[in-house]
Amino acid sequence: MSNWIEIGHLNDIPRQGSRIVEGPDGNIAVIRTQDDSVFAIHDSCPHKQGPLSQGIVFGHKVACPLHNWAIDLGTGQAQAPDEGNVACYPTKIENDVVFLSLDKVGEKTGP
Amino acid sequence: MSKVSHKAKKLIVVGNGMAGMHAVEELLDLAPDLYEITVFGAEPHGNYNRILLSLVLSGEKKIEDIMINGRAWYDEHGITLHTDTKIVQIERGSKRVITDDGQAFEYDRLLLATGSDPVILPLPGHDLPGVIGFRDIHDVDTMIKATQDHKHAVVIGGGLLGLEAANGLMKQGMDVTVVHLMDTLMERQLDVTAGKMLQANLESRGLKFVLSAQSETILGTDRVTGLRLADGTEIPADILVMAVGIRPSTELAADCRLHFERGIVVDDSLLTFDPSIYAIGECAQHRGTAYGLVAPLFEQGRVVANHLAELGFITYKGSMTSTKLKVTGIDLFSAGDFIGDDTTEDIVFNDPGNGSYKKLVLKDGIIQGAVLYGDTVDGAWYFQLMRDQTDTKDIRSHLLFGQSHLGDSGHGGENAAAALPDDAEICGCNGVCKGDVVKAITEHNLFTLDEVRAHTKASSSCGSCTGLVEQIMASTLGSDFSKSEKEKPVCGCTALTHEDVRAAIIKEDLKDIPTTMRFLNWQTEDGCPTCRPALNYYLLCAWPGEYIDDAQARFINERAHGNIQKDGTYSVVPRMWGGITTPKELRAIADVADKFKIPTVKVTGGQRIDLFGVAKSDLPAVWKDLNDAGMVSGHAYGKSLRTVKTCAGQQWCRFGTQDSIKLGIALERMTWGSWTPHKYKIAVSGCPRNCAEATIKDFGVVAVDSGFELHIAGNGGIKVRVTDLLCKVESESEVMEYAGAFMQLYREQARYLDRTAPWVERVGLTYVQEQMVNDEANRKALYERFLHSQTFSQSDPWKENYSDPKKRAEFETLTTLGQS
């Protein structure tokens, strides 16, 4: 099972915006999209490590502020023809409280 | 791989050429699973680049070099390909096509891309072996085979195709004579002078020409042996190539009574008169024109794919085409009406000794057509001016000498990309060499600048090498290269142009981004990083005081009120009015630098001080300290007024004629805080020595003894552009009025991310003068609107951010997690 950690209230994160959570492996960008979904990804673009938390959020994507790579928030994949991906973390919202798990999406959970 | 069972609809494509397959590629991008696709091709191959056949004939390329999609591509995308199969009938009632071996296939949608057929003159002997057209791989094979044991070739037709065939046959060692009905070669593309230069060049390579010649009989019994002309001359020929023109293939349409004229008639969505049948490429006729070149296919393919994918939001409005001969070593370019008439005028440059000829045909200052021979570097530029209908009055004196510096800074003044070696660096920002660009174009079949940018990153950062990249595309693709459309949509989310969107915002009272997107049928839920900032700006400009700025539609620099640096930190620049500071301000800056351990303190080019390396979470505190010392944001990060640079002026300088510092401060006090389509810089020089470098600013004031010269639309940077002189005024109050009016005209009319230089180049200096120099009432109205808008924008964003707890919170970390 995932270990859910409460990180804040939904309203702490601006719509189409983001906040930073300092994680054990570096910053995590917690991004709220137009439809009030919340995603968490490693705050470092696979291209030149730009802070994705500072990018423009559109659809379920974010554009890196340094060189405009578009990163899919659900998969962490860069949009073709750019190639690369960034770690994603599971999130959930309960009663407008946002939870984050440090088990990366796609990695096995538990021992 | 194939998901045939889920695909509800059947799409049949007749014609496996460039037009059909480009449309299919576009369709697969948009709706990969919508159709079960079946393609019929009369040739036994996959899909190849027909345009490059002449280079196969000349031995410069092999067949496999020009293949676009091999069998594997069709398999991979679940497309059924029938090669060597002709469709002989369309049954529109039962929606079936019938093949030459009698099979029937059903369709829901049918795409006709049957191309064109070579015109074969009905001369006696035209059906003899050895008489061929120049159209497909089979023709090229026949020609190459003939070169192995034959000597003499005749090509009928001195047009583009004929000359490419003749050149190829000559390169294969044949003795070639070109017979042409007219007295000039390529008369549809070249005027007499350029035609003669081309002829002389080709003759020096060994081609023979018989012009003004009427072909009469093709001689031979078992095989062609020669050609007799109307005047009795006989020319020996072992092979005879007819290259007198092409005719759209319309037999299928005629057979099923589908409306056709010269080609199959289609509307702006490429739909024929049958609502299930589309037609594109050389077989189609759109608004009276059947195109014989490849460039229009790409625009048509994009449109038809959009409609086949059931999106239906873009239309085809016709293409403007240009021509380039693919004979290695000959550079010629032709576009539009290059002959002209009583209402047009020519500008001609002729240097036969240097093998260079240029002719532009203008009507009321607008380019109607161009012929370039020898030096074709500026062909793409003239073509763009022609498509944009740009008034060239203001640049007429140097128009013929070209755009002069395609490469701009960082490219060593390089102009002719075609001649560069493969390892020459093209894009200095991203380190992309010419070879990388050429490889990407050929390997990935790229045809547009945007595609090349996406794949190579060349020209995707500062854009200064765009001209060079376009040249490489032109030289790699020849006539296939299609420059960006004239009416470019804002972005992929809409088919509307910047002008359309702005007009709608005002006309329809649209006052926020979601409403605007809904009203204008945006194709995405909440736009993209290209359109959102543009919409935010247009709304801000249209509704000062009413529109509430959307921070999330702004690039991070404008959200964080500082420039993001490569390590994610920010730079902070306090405003120094007119470049003047005080010991108190300097002490405060020094204290801030000490307190926040700011690693780099630098003097900027705009006469102020930049603090580099500030962590985002420190920004509000840094701002507060600077604010407490009386300083506000310098907007060094924004599409907004940056600085007003001044020289010492009359107050101190022994040459000064006016008080440039005082005037500079007044201008900065008036204009600071305003948002503009792109960054905006002003300078004031106190005398013509111009120490403030006012003539490379967006708005420059140069004081003279009798008043002030006002200069506009200059910039340093990527492409240095010296300003144009707008006018001369006498008083400081006039300077203020003109400065505000010009800024407002730019704010209201330039596209988002246009700097003043390209905007003024597009609309012309004369236009700006008419709007605000000659028309006093309009100038005053512009000035009033500017001042009105400023009443809402002159509040310090630093203070707003650090004093509002909610805004301030966004600069802070949400939470910190321990080790898990």
Tags for this entry?
heterodimer, A: 111 residues, mainly beta, Rieske Iron-sulfur Protein, 4-stranded antiparallel beta sheet, 3-stranded antiparallel beta sheet, 10 strands, B: 820 residues, alpha/beta, FAD/NAD(P)-binding domain, Enolase-like, domain 1, 7 domains, 5-stranded parallel beta sheet, disordered N terminus
How are the SSEs ordered, and which strands pair?
The complex is a heterodimer of chains A (111) and B (820).
Chain A: E1 4-9, E2 17-23, E3 26-32, E4 38-42, E5 56-58, E6 61-63, E7 70-72, E8 88-89, E9 91-94, E10 97-101
Antiparallel strand pairs in A: 1-10, 2-3, 3-4, 4-8, 5-6, 6-7, 9-10
Chain B: E1 9-14, H1 18-30, E2 35-40, E3 47-48, H2 53-57, H3 63-66, E4 67-69, H4 71-76, E5 80-82, E6 87-91, E7 96-99, E8 104-106, E9 109-112, E10 116-118, E11 131-132, H5 137-149, E12 152-156, H6 160-171, E13 175-179, H7 192-205, E14 208-210, E15 215-220, E16 224-229, E17 234-236, E18 239-242, E19 246-248, H8 251-255, E20 264-266, E21 277-279, E22 284-286, H9 295-308, E23 322-324, E24 332-336, E25 345-351, E26 356-363, E27 366-373, H10 379-387, H11 396-399, E28 425-427, E29 432-433, H12 434-443, H13 449-456, H14 466-477, H15 498-507, H16 513-519, H17 531-542, H18 556-560, E30 563-564, E31 570-572, H19 583-595, E32 600-603, E33 609-614, H20 619-628, E34 641-646, H21 660-671, E35 680-685, E36 699-704, E37 707-712, E38 724-729, H22 732-749, H23 756-763, H24 765-774, H25 776-793, H26 797-803, H27 805-809, E39 815-816
Parallel strand pairs in B: 1-2, 1-9, 2-5, 9-21, 11-18, 12-13, 12-18, 13-14, 20-22, 34-35, 35-36
Antiparallel strand pairs in B: 3-4, 6-7, 7-8, 10-19, 15-16, 16-17, 23-24, 24-27, 25-26, 26-27, 28-29, 30-31, 31-33, 32-33, 36-37, 37-38
Helix pairs in contact in B: 1-9, 12-14, 15-17, 20-26, 21-22, 22-24, 22-25, 24-25
Characterization of this structure:
The complex is a heterodimer of chains A (about 110) and B (about 800). Chain A is an all-beta fold and about 110 residues long. Chain A has one domain (about 5-100): Rieske [2Fe-2S] iron-sulphur domain (Rieske Iron-sulfur Protein, 3-layer Sandwich), CATH 2.102.10. Chain A is built from no helices and ten strands. Chain A has strands spanning about 5-10, 15-25, 25-30, 40, 55-60, 60-65, 70, 90, 90-95, 95-100. Chain A has a four-stranded antiparallel beta sheet, with no helix packed on it. In chain A, strands 1-10-9 form a three-stranded antiparallel beta sheet, with no helix packed on it. In chain A, strands 5-6-7 form a three-stranded antiparallel beta sheet, with no helix packed on it. The radius of gyration of chain A is 13 Å and the shape is globular. Chain B is an alpha/beta fold and about 800 residues long. Chain B folds into seven domains: about 5-115 and about 250-310, FAD/NAD(P)-binding domain (3-Layer(bba) Sandwich), CATH 3.50.50; about 130-245, 3-Layer(bba) Sandwich (FAD/NAD(P)-binding domain), CATH 3.50.50; about 330-400, FAD/NAD-linked reductase, C-terminal dimerisation domain (Enolase-like, domain 1), CATH 3.30.390; about 415-480, Arc Repressor Mutant, subunit A, CATH 1.10.10; about 500-555, no CATH class; about 555-640, Sulfite Reductase Hemoprotein,Domain 2 (Sulfite Reductase Hemoprotein, domain 2, Alpha-Beta Complex), CATH 3.90.480; about 640-795, Sulfite Reductase Hemoprotein, domain 1 (2-Layer Sandwich), CATH 3.30.413.10. Chain B is built from 27 helices and 39 strands. In chain B, strands 5-2-1-9-21 form a five-stranded parallel beta sheet. Chain B has a five-stranded parallel beta sheet with strand order 11-18-12-13-14, covered by helices on one side. A five-stranded antiparallel beta sheet of chain B has the order 23-24-27-26-25. In chain B, helix 15 crosses helix 17, helix 21 runs parallel beside helix 22 and helix 24 (about 765-775) packs across helix 25. The two termini of chain B are about 40 Å apart. The interface of A and B includes residues 56, 66, 100 and 102 of A. Strand 2 (about 15-25) of chain A pairs parallel with strand 39 (about 815) of chain B, so a sheet runs across the interface.
